[in-house]
Design a protein that fits this description.
Chain lengths: 100, 992, 416
Amino acid sequence: MLLIRCPYCNDELPELEYSYAGEAHVDRPPDPASLDDEAWRDFLFVRRNPRGLHLERWRHAFGCGRFFNAVRDTATDEVIHTYHAGEPRPDLEKFDRGAS
Amino acid sequence: MKYRVANKGRLGAEVGFSFDGRSLTGRRGDTLASALLANGVHLVGRSFKYHRPRGILSAGSEEPNALVSIKRPGGRSDPNTRATVQELFEGLVADSQHRWPSLAVDLNALTSIASPFVAAGFYYKTFMWPRSFWTRFYEPVIRAAAGLGEAPTDPDPDTYAHLYEHCDVLVIGGGIAGIAAAMSAGASGAKTILVDEQAEIGGTLLSDPSVEIDGASCWQWLEKAHDELGEMDNVLVLSRTTAIGYYHQNMVVMAQRLTDHRDGPPPKALPRERLWHVRAKQVVLAQGAIERPLVFSGNDRPGVMLADASRTYLNRYGVLVGARPLVVTNNDTAWNAAFDLAEAGADIAAIVDERFEVHPDLKGRARTLNINVLTGHHVAKTEGRLRIVAAIVHSDQGAAKQRIVCDAVLMSGGWTPSVHLFSHTRGSLNWNPDEQSFLPGDTIERCRPVGAGNGTTTFQGAATEGATAGAAAAEDAGFKSTERAIKVRSTSELDQPLTVLAHSAVPEGAKAFIDFQNDVTTRDIKQAVREGFTSIEHVKRYTTTGMATDQGKTSNINGLKVAAASIGKPAPDIGLTTFRPPYTPTTFGALAGHHKGATFDIERRTPIDAWAEAEGAVYEPVGQWRRARYFPQGQEDMHQAVARECMAVRNSLGMFDASTLGKIEIVGPDAAEFMNRMYTNPWTKLTPGRCRYGLMLSEDGFIYDDGVIGRLGPDRFHVTTTTGGAPRVLNMMEDYLQTEWSDLSVWLTSVTEQWAVIALAGPRSRDLIKPMIDDVDLSDEAFPHMSIATGHILSIPMRLFRVSFSGERGYEINVPARYGLGLWKHLFAEGQRYDITPYGTETMHVLRAEKGFIIVGQDTDGTVTPDDAGLNWAIGKKKPDFVGKRSLTRPDMSKPDRKHLVGLLTTDSNEVLPEGAQIVADPDQQIPMDMIGHVTSSYWSAPSGRSIAMALVAGGRNRFGETVYIPLEGKTVPATVTATTFFDPDNKRINA
Amino acid sequence: MRFSLSQVVWQGLKGNVGWRPQWPAAEPKRAYEVVIVGAGGHGLATAYYLAKEHGITDVAVVERGWLGGGNTGRNTTIIRSNYLYDESARLYDHAVKLWEGLSQELNYNVMFSQRGVMMLAHNVHDTQSFQRHIYANKLNGVDNVWLTPEEAKDYCPPLNIDPSARYPVLGAALQRRGGTARHDAVAWGYARGAAQRGVDIIQNCPVISIARGADGRIKGVETGRGFIGAKKVAVVVAGATTTVMETAGVTLPLQSHPLQALVSEPVKPVFPCVVMSNAVHAYISQSDKGELVIGSGTDQYVSYVSRGGLHIIEHTIAAINELFPIFSRMRMLRSWGGTVDVTPDRSPIIGLTPVPGLYVNCGWGTGGFKATPGSGHVFAHTIARGEPHDINAPYTIDRFKAGRLIDEAAAAAVAH
């Protein structure tokens, strides 16, 4: 069970309090009608799914209820950093430890 | 207890027990294994495959052989319990298992004769013909032969608990290293937990009272240590507690056994086991090491035992495991067993050491004790059926062989550090060629391996390493460290490097066992390699070595070495199989914890539920709720009850508990804009006081949820959702609001449980409530269909909806939940003059189907678009965007053969189609048939006097009037495709 | 060497020293007509059918670790074909038909045991959904019957059918032709069969990247043991599809999740069939060895670690105890995790990719084992002909663009 710091509550809490909400920084297009089918498919379904550092969304569902973002290494499951929704994409090089 | 040694052991009063029906006595403090050995019982079990007689190999949780069934009354029987960990209690009843007719005479052992033909993987090569015989004949025979004990036959009466704990330093293993770590960490003030799987802490010290610590005998020191730890408020010592798994981010899960060692039935207040989930800032792993067997032919006979286990049985349990034991080893530690047993009166047959060079002190001591020493020798084979009687010992130089009579063989093939939990962390392991074992390497978790589990084999080394690690762990957890100095003096140290096993000495065809329980021999492993299984995982899976209930604790390294030697590669090159949780087998009960019976998954009930139960309602589970499905009167079945309930609504008045409907209050200056984006419908122009049917899609364009939504003010909506959909709808709304449209000023609040909802339906509904409401004008002009108002009913604050899911005049009265039951009772009493009839979900379903209203999840299924469901009217055509809109223009979403929701009228009006039945256009085609749709809802409609159905049919709206066919068991039912409204198509009843 | 009882006896009499490798350890050649990446069940089956059905034997199967070491060796071995949609029923029933003769065809006993797969209905919605399956299956020629609670208990005596249970058993859908197979043997049997027909099986050979020529066509694969040329490359690497395919510049709609399973200590026969309950997330059967084999759910997050949280297993075990209260005192012996690739509609992708000469078979989610023979069979056809077999034609990458999903779970709330 992962241990995740909610950046709003500023408390490190077990995964049971949270629900995962997929890759972060996938913005809903402001004008979906202007997208062709392929671009819309990509928005709906295609995710990076990387092995290594992953920017992802969690919701503190059984706590404050807020959505926030996290940096997690999918090769170790270690939650490395969490930050508020809406904050810019963090510089991943800061977290990369080489081998993963 | 003729093998009991006076003045030895840590034992208490005498207790009686039985084994295979034989009454025996043992002592408090015994394990079942030590008590059996005290009575001279070595034959305890039979092996899995060949049913070979087996004794007790070890004195701990690594035991592969001595598995028994513990029989307790009242559904408390357990199969496959290791006799070496089962503490003796008064009246314990144990039976051997996996034998017929008896343990001594097991006819299944005849498989041993066929052993050349049932070697590794034989079943992959046979039993293929005739084809039908596998399931019918071969497999049942194999299954009957497999398995060990019998599964319990009764539900488990015991309870289990889950505990969640946090600490600064968790120390796993209560040997000298662990105790030292806990003392050091505890002294710093860090919250410390020390756990050990045994009945008391002490580890190896319990087996070796000759060790002196800080000037006292180690047993005295242990008492002091126990007291010292007990006096520290910040230290918790848990015995009988096994750390079973090391999970993400320093969460260690531990199973604590509370009742299995007690006399009689367990106290009611006490759970049988507690599963601790400990989140530790720092972990010290002090799990120790497990002795390895030597591999020689007949190394599995009863009486053959790990050398250190014999020492444990002597020193801790006061049992001499044999009168004339033969000690066989490749390292120093077994010599101590020989010395201890000799001093206790055993006639040591010899010490056979595979090494040519042995420390002169050991030899000197042996000479003093008059023990015959054979260095450079090994055991070639053994004799004996139900108990070992002799060993044939070969010299490694020349061909000298001798037969040594003995009644036990005490063997040591070296020590395997317990790296299981470390391995759970996905930590790396490093091969140590000197000791022929894997040692912990790197891990991302915050843990420190110490002591024998880290390859540190002296007591002093382990004590110092433990103390250092405990202090360092406390410091890393934020405490000022104070390392506890511990001074050990011991005559028996494990400080000599071990030699490599000489497997070349194992002859082909011999019964030299690697995995005792699964009957895997060196021959099997060599054969697997010969057949191309050259990864250790392949060898394991092909031979099943290491896959028994001991999970390879005594066999992994031996198996690896034999495989490596056969392949001709160094052991680390062919890998070690991954260690998997749990460390020792863990009961399902402990894993489930409180999640049992009524607390398995808490059921939600409405405020009115108790009334329905008293009225004899039949319930159905819907989502997490239980809902009244119908209210049978007398001997009514569901269909009779539903027909009566339906007619009551259509003719006069029905009442329905709609409290389970999801309710979300949406408030804020941008509430209407938010609604515009979330729902397909337009909301801007909906005036306060009015309601609208809302349809919600997921972003991929399929129907996600629906419900009636009332606008209470310019900035306030009362949203209802489906019963099961409320949490996911709110989650989806929050997701968009927080992360996509955070500029909108809107607040979302779940109010599902705040409001009890009583739906009144039928022509007399207004008549019933009118006298109770003063502040809302209920006239059709002032409060028409699809209205909402706030007011009071019987002075209770309410939100009143004028809505209808039945087509009849209808009101949904929302009152604060605490008034729900009282209001319901009042309405029921007052409604008697209108023959008010409570109805359940089934009648609700029929009534809505008569009107063609859909139920999301029944008439739609996650693949249905608004157009498919005939709900295009609910789409705000002028809105630039809403969730799911873009997906509706994808090529597949507008194909003409999409399935449309339509009505079906069977030609025979009495025929009620089964829901889920498939529809075809041509009933005469061959299977596989071309199916054009299925029946989603189907009922007997009492008001219509016939059956009605809804269906999803390909191109259905272009088929109105066509006949389609529904093939059923033994008949095919024709039906006509129609619109979905079956009753009151002009909606006249809404104001009736 | 043909396997048979007489062979076993003959070799046994000779001390079992005459057995030969079931597949030779092959060194990679410079180039092959087809390189299959991934020696799991699906990849090996593909190689076998390429050789047997299409005469294409210039094939290498390259594997980063040991063959059958991925999800093939980690799953709970449930086999069934009672799927709702025509596309799914055809694919999985094609597989079941191949399973039915597989031991004989491969001359390797894969222990396909048609002990029946029973899916429990716990509420009215389940009942409606299962009835829909049963009717659809019947018209598709797939066996699946409805059982009352009493009939379900007859079929599986440990089942608790107390109507007051939190999740009462209202009935069950039973596919008698469903069952289990010995997962490792499937990989080994196909490996042996393929090797006998000339396929090279190359283990400990990780693929680093997929190489494409200037024209965009496939050139081969760069591996830990050097470059291997190929006219066609087929990727069948559940749990690593994203990372392998992105080296060829192909992005796929996949998410990788941990999936866990566990076994109990072995006991004498007590559980005669396979039982699945989607409402409480529990899948259980008893192996020939006597262990209860229990499938758990996926963890919620993306991960490649092949280990999940214990809370997932705790939930599964609690559900098992509710359905089968006699198992509460049984003990979990071993638990493990794998990594599954999940598509948006939880149905696989089997077929061509935008890169000429590159084929992919992925996205089986939690239910790929049952399809192994059928998947390999139609994938081999696709590779050999350069176009999909009728059966896998619907399983394109393009369906996600068009919205033509094959979403069994959405249709029925039924996990695979």
